[in-house]
Amino acid sequence: MTYAPDFTPAPDRRPALALFAGGLLSGAALVVLVLTLTGVIGGTAGGAATPSASGEPTAPAAMLPLVTLPPLAAPEFLTPTVLADGRSLGEPTAAVTIEVWADYQCPYCGLFSQQVEPRIVATYVQSGKARLVFRDLAFLGEESRWAAVAARLAEEQGSFWPYHDWLFANQIGENKGAFAIERLREIAGRVGLDMDRFDAGLELDAARAAFAEIRADAEADAAALNISRTPTVVIDGTVIEANDWDSIRTAIDAALAGS
User: Fold this and answer.
1) Distance (Å, rounded) from C-alpha 210 to C-alpha 152?
2) Spans of the chain, pLDDT less than 50
3) How many CB atoms lie under 10 A from the CB of residue 103?
4) What is the pLDDT of residue 69?
5) Which residues contact 13 (CB under 8 A, 6 or more apart)?
6) 132: which residues sit within 8 A by CB, 6+ positions away?
7) For 168-171, which contacts have Cβ atoms below 8 Å and span 24 or more sequence positions?
């Protein structure tokens, strides 16, 4: 899936955010709001915000219709966390570093997380040969941004990888409510997070600050690597054009041979 590498929030989206200026809503009020506004920080009917002539997103034209969301599904594969360090997995001194750039709403990223990533972990990370690092490219709309923030909040509690696994296991399409606030809170409960700390991080000012850090962490590196799709795998600084298991395995083996 391709994306436009623009992580800058548009000023004209602030009116939509003003609904939350008083802070995080909780209880029944939050549930009603989430059912009404899937995505919470705006969003247009049918997907991500429409770019303006300047290339920045414009204010949403309409809110998404109500949809019936399926119950949360437990991940079929849970990333082993014994070697987890935040968004990294594996020995810091491993010979090869593998970066996976992804958006939690991207369906191809979902497939990668379930079909390829477990094989990378089992074959190279757990053996100490490689280190795996997750990099955010939250470009598919407001639910992508909220999911990225929520995953960072889970990281603060030492549970990034379980939260990452639950997010990818519960995709239902772009900006259709899968990662609305109440669903993100439900995932946090399933993962076992301290909900008071998690909710504090979802307060609007805190969430904005967290996403600013995510954006700053990603945009320069993504531009330097000329990344134009998700998922993108980068091995020791080299972008791998394919993201199937055979191609990734060949690239890792070549990097190991040259290390």
Assistant:
1) 8
2) 2-66
3) 25
4) 86
5) 41, 42, 49, 57, 58, 59, 60
6) 88, 89, 90, 98, 100, 117, 120, 121, 125
7) 168/75, 168/104, 168/109, 168/110, 168/113, 168/114, 169/73, 169/74, 169/75, 169/76, 169/110, 169/114, 170/72, 170/73, 171/104, 171/105, 171/107, 171/110
The enclosing H or E element of 133 equals strand 130-136
Q: What DSSP line would sit under 49-110, residue for residue?
A: PPB-TTSSBPPPSSPPPP--PPPP---SS----TTEETTEES-TT-SEEEEEEE-TT-HHHH
Contact call for residues 43 and 50 (beta carbons, < 8 A): no
Residues 17-21: contacts with CB within 8 Å, 24+ apart? 17/41, 17/42, 17/204, 17/208, 20/204, 21/204
114-128 pLDDT per residue, tens:
999 999 999 999 999
CA distances from 187 to 77, 124, 131, 167 (A): 15, 28, 26, 8
Model's pTM, two decimal places? 0.76
pLDDT of residue 158: 96
Token pair for residue 92? 């810091």
Q: What is the pLDDT of residue 52?
A: 38
- How deeply is 192 buried, as exposed, middle or buried, from its count of CB atoms within 10 A (0-12, 13-18, 19+)? exposed
